[in-house]
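Roadblock/LC7 domain-containing protein, Actinomadura darangshiensis. Tokens?
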Amino acid sequence: MSGVSPNRPQDLAWLLRALSEEVPDIRGSVLLSSDGMLKASDGFDRTSAEQLAALASGLFSMARSAGTKFDDSNDVRQVVAELRSSQLYISWAGSNSVLAVLARAEADPAVVGFETARLIKAVRPFLHTAARPAAATSKRDPAT
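Tokens:
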């Protein structure tokens, strides 16, 4: 990855494709900002990727709230949901970033978890999402 700056936007879908190639039971994955904006995807059409990003953001946020209330920390490593025919893994992927991976039900959770963590660890600086600037407030003269 030499010559690639972690501070510039780039196409990260190839990283997600590599994960799917490493673990064939992965149906698709999305990289999103912690507030739910889609950054990259593999295995989904745009609409489905955006829907998964929004859902993953909500589940990750609820896990952070649970951690704050019951664990004295809002640090979340992973949220896992077992669905009827799929497994959903939502992992912290760096500053303001989350990775959601949808795998088939027969996928080995240890393999999916290990390969997802390995990917995140290897390229974490490139997965960071810059914080959004605060909305500008207009300073209007109340007399006008």
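Helices lie at 13-22, 46-70, 109-127.
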